[in-house]
Amino acid sequence: MSLVDFRKEIDLIDQELVQLLEKRFLIVHQIGLLKKELGLPVFDPKREKEVLESKGKLITNKEHLAYYESIFKLIMDISKDMEK
Ligand SMILES: C=C(O[C@@H]1C=C(C(=O)O)C=C[C@H]1O)C(=O)O
């Protein structure tokens, strides 16, 4: 495959990522409103640990685990910001 072909594939994957992130952030916003209503804190360390562990199990190439963890930590940090 050529560089152009590979980049076309990446563009399609990125498009899906954006759509999925938009979906996630919409739900995060709802969670933020609910937490405000219930007087719950934005940060839930137990849940974040569960998110990281469950996603860790899905990763086929365990050598990439640290990269996924960084990505999910960043997504969760941004999510917490969006909840505020
Ligand atoms: C979205 C939530 O709020 C925060 C963000 C999380 C996330 O992005 O997955 C998880 C836990 C919380 O720290 C939640 O509590 O589910």
TrEMBL record:
Q: Which Gene3D superfamilies does the annotation name?
A: Chorismate mutase (1.20.59.10)
Q: Which GO terms describe its molecular function?
A: chorismate mutase activity
> Superkingdom of this entry's organism?
Bacteria
Is the keyword ATP-binding assigned to this protein?
A: no
Tell me, what's a Pfam family for it?
CM_2
User: Does Isomerase appear among the keywords?
Assistant: yes
Tell me which SUPFAM superfamilies the record gives: Chorismate mutase II
Q: Which UniProt keywords apply?
A: Isomerase
Ranges for domain Chorismate mutase: 1-84
**What are its GO biological-process terms?**
chorismate metabolic process; salicylic acid biosynthetic process
The UniProt entry, under PANTHER family, shows:
CHORISMATE MUTASE (PTHR38041:SF1)
Stated name of the protein: Chorismate mutase
Q: Which organism is it from?
A: Acholeplasma oculi
